[in-house]
Amino acid sequence: MTPNPIQDESRKSYELPRTLAWSGGVDGTLALLDQTLLPHRVKNRVCSTAEDVWNAIRELCVRGAPAIGVAAAYGLCLGTRPFRRQSRDDFLAKTREICAYLESSRPTAVNLAWALGRVSKAAQSHPSASVGEIWDAMLAEAHELAREDMETCRRIGEVGAHLIPEDGGVLTHCNAGALATVAYGTALSLMYIAREQGRKFRVYADETRPLLQGARLTAFELSAAGIDVTVLCDGAAASLMSSGKVQLVVVGADRIASNGDTANKIGTLGLALSAKYHDIPFYVAAPRSTFDLSLPDGGAIPIEERPEAEVRGGFGVDVVAPGVRCFNPAFDVTPVELITGIVTEVVLLEPVTAKNIKQIFERGA
Predict the structure, then answer these.
(1) Exposure of 30 by Cβ count < 10 A (0-12 exposed, 13-18 middle, 19+ buried)?
(2) What is the homologous superfamily of the domain 158-362 according to CATH?
(3) Out of 34, 149, 206, 254, which one is annotated catalytic?
(4) According to a count of CB atoms within 10 Å of the terminal CB, is the N or C end of the chain lower?
(5) What's residue 108's pLDDT?
(6) Is 254 a catalytic residue?
């Protein structure tokens, strides 16, 4: 895998720390950039077991739906590696067990189950192979997922870069950039490609309570790319829109139902409502792997609720009175009626309808 490549308007190369990387061949390990330490410390967490990967996903060391999926794919390889000398049936049973375990780390991002399904299918697609050969095929599939993610995110940017307003303002929420994927990102990919094309614009990044992914991560990577970025409190977004400084809102997604309802970081629904009121286009950027066609609408999307402590005492300082409860859903669902369009790696879906969504899967890759 290559580093996360970002270029400024003069095409001078920048490199962010790599979100994830496998090293060491069949006996290798998975290095994950520990995003809980950014922007002040750049440190990798090295994973050699499925448990290591589960903890890294759960603790948000690695986050962002595409990156979670790729990390889990490698986690399945790590978890099954000690069982390569078992019988085929025992090995496949262990594969299913570890898949279920890794899926439990975070329930909302559909890329997690999708990527694990891809690697599991590779394990079952070689009926005459030895268990060692089956495991090799699983690792090869995980490598392919990582390569595909980088290419897919680049294509998302190419499909949607024209939406970035010349000399305008773009508002985004949470982090849907290179740090949430193998490279480029989803929502931020539009900005990186627009920058390559010479367009000038400014980005407003919600800080994204309670864990500040916008302030810590989005601002970190955009500033590293030389892109004009300003951080604002989540509660200031509506006021900013009313000022006329925002011409576009673009966010990522963790799961999209078959009708277009979209789950993303908590606070996204409020942005969509405000954008609708102020007549500002609201776009979602996501690969086809983020769609869950088994769900009829957003009401069926499972919403992860995280520990109260993240709200009560973010970054080690309690700000809520003892005994007061805290509500901490990690995501909310934006109904399709509030979404102007969805930028995928193959097409810009606009308007967003169940029929149009179905067509992007019928047309093939």
Answers:
(1) buried
(2) Translation initiation factor eif-2b; domain 2 (3.40.50.10470)
(3) 254
(4) C
(5) 83
(6) yes
The DSSP output letter for 163 is G
- The angle formed by the CA atoms of residues 189, 190 and 196, to the nearest 5 degrees, is 90
Q: How confident is the model at residue 364 (pLDDT cuts 50, 70, 90)?
A: low
Structural domain boundaries of the chain?
4-153, 158-362
CA-based nearest residue to 175, from 217, 222, 236, 112:
217
Q: What is the pTM of this model?
A: 0.89
Q: How far apart are CA 42 and CA 44, in angstroms?
A: 7
Q: Is 33 helix (H, G, I), strand (E, B) or coil?
A: strand
Mean pLDDT of 211-228: 95
- Assess contact for 64 and 179: CB atoms under 8 A: yes
Res. 2: pLDDT tops 80: no
What beta strand segments (E) does the chain contain?
4-7, 13-16, 20-23, 29-33, 44-47, 169-172, 202-206, 229-232, 248-251, 255-257, 262-265, 282-285, 291-292, 331-334, 341-343, 348-349
Nearest residue to 268 via CA among 296, 223, 298: 298
Q: Do 4-153 and 158-362 agree at the fold level?
A: no
Cα–Cα distance measured from residue 363 to residue 365, given in angstroms and rounded to the nearest whole number: 7
- How high is the pLDDT of residue 363? 66
What fold, for 4-153? Four Helix Bundle (Hemerythrin (Met), subunit A) (1.20.120)
CA 303 to chain CA mean position, Å: 15
- Looking at residue 316, its pLDDT comes to 77
Q: What is the pLDDT of residues 296-333, one digit of tens each?
A: 999 999 999 999 999 999 777 899 999 999 999 999 99
Cα 58 from Cα 72, distance rounded (Å): 11
